[in-house]
Design a protein that fits this description.
Length: 136
């Protein structure tokens, strides 16, 4: 139950707890977009394409802080066929999906129709919220 602080006393809500990292828990990344689309045919889950650049600080932050978090692993495992694409090695896919900045995520179907697109936040709770509410 939420209690109001007595009047005249400032109230600072507690900071959110950091995302729990689960040792050994990992997102089941597909090795390629083709593999993710093939899995999508079987599972009926959409493909979540994460576009990063390995040379980018934001891509490093996602790999370190967001993807190992328990809530991120749970959501991506249950709801999507996830695949990461490094734009330094795959220049064609970002162009086909109209990716213009990084880090970015696209939810696509097996025909590569973009169902939604969102920026990748650098905290696990924000990433989960963005991915969870992306239309798919």
């Amino acid at each position: 139950m939420f209690h109001e602080p007595p009047s005249g006393i400032p109230f600072d809500p507690p900071a959110p707890a950091p995302a729990a990292l689960v040792p050994g828990a990992t997102v089941p990344w597909h090795a390629s977009l083709a593999a993710a689309k093939q899995a999508s045919l079987l599972s009926a889950r959409p493909v979540l394409v994460i576009f990063v650049a390995k040379s980018s600080e934001s891509g490093t932050a996602l790999a370190r802080d967001v993807f190992p978090a328990a809530e991120t692993v749970a959501l991506l495992t249950a709801c999507f066929e996830p695949v990461k694409i490094d734009i330094d090695t795959d220049k064609a896919t970002p162009g086909r999906l109209d990716v213009v900045h990084l880090p970015c995520a696209c939810v696509i179907d097996v025909e590569e129709r973009v169902l939604s697109r969102f920026d990748c936040p650098e905290s696990s709770p924000a990433f989960v919220a963005a991915a969870q509410y992306a239309p798919h």
